[in-house]
Specification:
The complex is a heterodimer of chains A (159) and B (319). By secondary structure, chain A is an all-beta fold. Helix content of chain A is 0%, strand content 43%. Chain A has one domain: Immunoglobulin-like (Sandwich), CATH 2.60.40. In chain A, a hairpin with a 5-residue loop joins strand 2 and strand 3. In chain B, 0% of the residues lie in helices and 48% in strands. In chain B, the strands form seven sheets. In chain B, strands 18, 19, 21, 22, 23 and 26 form a six-stranded antiparallel sheet that branches. A five-stranded mixed sheet of chain B has the order 8-17-14-10-12, with no helix packed on it. Chain B has a four-stranded antiparallel sheet with strand order 1-20-25-24, with no helix packed on it. The N and C termini of chain B lie close together (11 Å). Classes of the chains: A mainly beta (159), B mainly beta (319). Chain A: Keywords: Signal.
């Protein structure tokens, strides 16, 4: 690092900052980012454990978690969660226990990744790859009853 | 075309040197990784219909700061080089910051033979892979190399050949100033923009070596060719243009150098194609160093300084 001015503020680096969920309305959504670290068990096997992001560099895996809740008194149907993939992030797939989302490579057309294609610089078309994904979307199949909540997550890596 | 005719080179010291290829490798820049210190912000939205009206709310923002990966590579321009007595030999090392942040790297040189002195460290300022005492600025010992992510720089180590014995090894080591060690080692807050710095797969340090030998100061001349046929291929067919490259290197100072090369039979010189060090020379025998006609090319280099090199190119058309 050329400039060490920031060094005094070192402790805050690479921390997953999180502000309060936006209130209002009968529905709430909270976004957080976690990192997947491998924890070694006594028998020598390793298993991935999700935890707060301590430090992530290019190539490291992260998990985006979306938690939603119906805080109102009515059942709400046809709920859609949409997550534009942030700059610098490459989509990899749904987390365990999360249904596969519909994805998009242009923010307009959504579907399974295998159904999408992208235009190459030469004007030809090729099948879309996870790196091409710009948006991730889930349409909740069942209406969300009053007080109900859920969580969806997708895996990604830092470019 | 197969009948490459003999290339003649003359220099005051006489004997023709054995062929020695000058390998000038330029590593491809690292794949663009997210710059260290970059904040990555995620916001999701929830969409539904309420009383027939579409409703949307955003989530909070979840932010993470990209850590700085400390990675570096170094490559010796040549695995082996001659360092004749009485001359100064320039040994080049290419250093690449393969991490994702701006970083200072310490550069150190050692010789395994006592008495072998490093007379100068210089940066290849014009990035041509050839040491030039006038153009390439000195790197003061102990001065770090400041490289942005993906940036590369070539450092010349100048060796006084007096004490060189066969097998003398010159080792150059670069190390990230922020820290090095086992991959994954974290230097909290020491990265760009206050991000954490994390040692990458290269251990944030790298070493390369060139083995020297005290061979006599013999110039060398290497001739190569490339063919460009009218159909875009590299077939030596009628009408194809063959470009010859003559690379002359001079380990020691050499006087009165001239290089002659006849035009091969069955080909015709392409007028105006003669160049010296990528600058055009006129075909006429005039004030510049070169002359060319239907029989051959002639370039007078005069007195060449130690560790000098020159490249001559000309083209012929297959008849």
């Amino acid at each position: 690092m050329f400039n060490r001015i920031a060094r005094t503020a070192a402790a805050v680096s690479a921390v997953a900052l999180s502000t309060a969920a936006v209130a209002g309305g009968p529905l709430q959504i909270t976004s957080k980012v976690l990192s997947e670290t491998k924890v070694r068990a006594a028998d020598g096997s390793t298993s991935p454990v999700l935890g707060p992001v301590k430090k992530v560099g290019p190539g490291d895996g992260v998990v985006f978690v979306l938690a939603y809740q119906n805080t109102g008194k009515q059942t709400i149907g046809n709920i859609v969660l949409d997550n534009p993939v942030p700059q610098g992030i490459a989509y990899r797939g749904p987390s365990a226990n999360t249904p596969a989302p519909e994805v998009s490579v242009d923010g307009k057309t959504y579907g399974p990744l295998a159904s999408l294609n992208v235009r190459t610089p030469t004007g030809a078309r090729r099948a879309a790859a996870p790196d091409d994904v710009t948006h991730v979307r889930w349409r909740l199949a069942a209406p969300l009853t009053a007080g109900a909540q859920g969580q969806l997550a997708f895996k990604a890596v830092l470019k | 075309m197969t009948a490459a005719r003999k290339t003649a080179a003359k220099w005051a010291r006489g004997a023709t040197a054995p062929v020695a290829a000058c390998l000038c490798l330029f590593a491809a820049p690292a794949v663009a990784a997210t710059q260290a210190g970059t904040s990555i912000v995620n916001i999701a939205t929830l969409n539904w219909n309420q009383d027939g009206q579409p409703k949307t709310i955003p989530s909070n923002t979840a932010t993470l700061v990209t850590a700085e990966t400390l990675d570096v590579t170094i490559t010796a321009d040549r695995a082996a080089a001659s360092a004749p007595t009485g001359t100064t030999t320039a040994v080049g090392f290419l250093v690449i910051n393969t991490g994702n942040g701006s970083e200072d790297f310490n550069f150190g040189v050692t010789a395994d033979q006592s008495g072998v002195a490093v007379s100068r460290l210089a940066i290849d300022s014009d990035n041509d892979g050839v040491y030039d005492a006038a153009k390439d600025r000195t790197l003061a010992p102990g001065t770090a190399l400041s490289l942005t992510a993906g940036q590369q720089v070539r450092v010349f180590v100048l060796i006084d050949g007096t004490q060189v014995t066969a097998g003398t090894t010159i080792s150059a080591t670069v190390t990230a100033k922020t820290g090095s060690g086992a991959p994954g080692t974290v230097f909290a807050g020491a990265g760009d923009n206050g991000s954490d710095a994390v040692v990458g797969q290269t251990h944030a340090t790298a070493t390369a070596a060139t083995i020297l030998s005290p061979a006599a100061a013999q110039p060398s001349l290497v001739k190569s060719q490339s063919v460009f046929a009218p159909d875009g291929s590299a077939r030596a067919m009628r009408g194809a243009i063959v470009t010859y490259t003559l690379a002359a290197t001079f380990p020691g100072a050499t006087a009165n150098v001239s290089i002659d090369d006849p035009i091969p039979a069955g080909t015709a010189y392409v007028p105006g194609s003669l160049t010296l060090d990528q600058r055009a020379l006129s075909d006429g025998a005039d004030t510049d160093a070169g002359a060319a006609d239907t029989s051959g090319i002639h370039v007078a280099l005069g007195n060449v300084a130690a560790a000098g090199s020159h490249t001559i190119q000309f083209s012929v058309k297959i008849q």
